[in-house]
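Re: weekly structure request thread

Next one in the queue (615 aa):
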Amino acid sequence: MCGIAGIIAANPALVSVQRANNMTDAIAHRGPDGAACWQAPGGQVILGHRRLSIIDLSESAAQPMHYRDRYTIVYNGEIYNYRELRVILQQQGYSFRSQSDTEVILAAYDAWGTECLQQFDGMFAFALWDEKEQQLFAARDRFGEKPFYYYTDKEQFVFASEMKALWAAGIEKKMNERMLFNYLTLGYIQNPKDSSETFYKDIYKLPARCFLIWDAQQHTLTQHSYWDIDLDKTDTALPEAEAAEQLGSLLSLSVNRRLRSDVPVGTSLSGGLDSSSVLACIQQAGGQPASFQTFSATFPGFVRDESERIALMAGYFGVTNHQVQPTARDLINDFERICHHQEEPFQSASIVAQYKVFELARQQGVTVLLDGQGADELLGGYSKYYPWYWRELYRQNKPLLRKELQQAIPAGQEDQWNWRHRLAAHLPHFAETWLERQRRRQQRRHADLSPDFRDAFGISHYAIPHVPTLNGVLYYNTFLNGLEELLQYADRNSMAHGREVRLPFLYHELATFIFSLPARYKIRDGYTKWVLRKSMEPVLPPAIVWRKDKVGFEPPQQLWMQDEPVKEYIREARRVLVNKGVLSRAVLDKKIQPQETHAADNFDWRYLVAGTLLR
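Done, posted below.
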């Protein structure tokens, strides 16, 4: 895990070592173990790198790394199957001077060209300069775990792991007001219709599962998608027991690969099914000492505190558990620093808790943490997915629908089956279009917005996935709007402390298999993530496998927002937004409305974040 940066320009004044150093200095937190820059012989390309040493700690694995007097790479991430690929490449005549996965990428590109991306199991963002072709090949992993931002104009192409490196290179920092409008009214930090858009004008991100080619001679940029899920390949005949076994095997393979490291590895532990499943696979992998370290955030006295289940899992597997207990005081003390690292707005105080967990890992000397993120989106772990499943059953199997509706009530599902769902089942496009129009009108009527701001920038990004199936909405949240937001938070929070987070559920072969399963293997009998529960039933306590309450990574945000120093922070953020012409002056006289983490009208939290970022 590292930080990368680079500049390509014909004008020598734009391609300087000092400018590149400014960029890598701005992201020094991503790579505390080393820094280097390399300039191409012709002077038109410079690549910079900040190193966090994980695989092959020797100097032979340092970057920028060169290969065959033709290729130079800067790379952020991990290729987990690098050992297997190394053997394949050696059989084809390639030799290696390091034990790193970085060198495997270089050899793979030389062997297979852009098709090398199909071979990688990993999280990555890299830029590879081909001196012979005078082209930059840059790529991002399938789920968007690792970031890649870029800026281009008539003279230059500039890229980096974080936008603050682009600003350090002199790229102007200009707020994207349309994105700000959608964040304040909806909480959106992404544009579902344009995944390259960011909160800053003229700065773009390379979308997940995409690569780009920058041709320095032609001064042209081309972008291509290299991977996707086929939603039409649904295996309805696979027996449940076989599906559970295959899921467990794929998850275990993914965990085993993500344990490969030359530095200490631990895992996050929330007390939920996902992180507990990862811990179970770690223990099954063997070779983990009893002192294996896990990390948790707890909130004593809070109704959603998970201390009891965390203790259950730590005791069940005999691991060492470290806990941090974030408070409103931590929110005040760390908030500006967190905003600096996040760069773009975030939806709730969960980010603060996650930040403190990675800080705790750094204090304990653990560099790599595994985490269960991604399972909810792949396997239907949120209650919001029930209506899509119900509508699917309404069209296909009404007797089963009646059974599922009865089972959902004791599971705590609040949404009730009614005429709106029946209409949506019969006429999904009509119902979703009507709802989109209603929500967009609500956005424009948002009382706190300055009329001038609303009229100038009030273009809605609100979107409902126009899909008739559960798998369709899971695809939407996994790849178009939802998961990448969480991955962005995790990347910034982990790298703020020079830690690496690895996500076993985001193994592309596992995801492909999960999407091939029918909806009844994901939601059944009032339970979400059914097939994962069946897979983990032999290795986890029933209190974890068969718990029906869904507790997200949720701090007592509403309580924190009642703390007087936090309220004053919110008032100051409101004043900033009023002075910027974003909010109307009347908002200064309104009482602060503390809300829980996932509340739809979490407006004062959004004002707090946006006002801090715009100072």
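The chain is about 40% helix and 15% strand. The two ends are 30 Å apart (CA to CA).
Next request, please.
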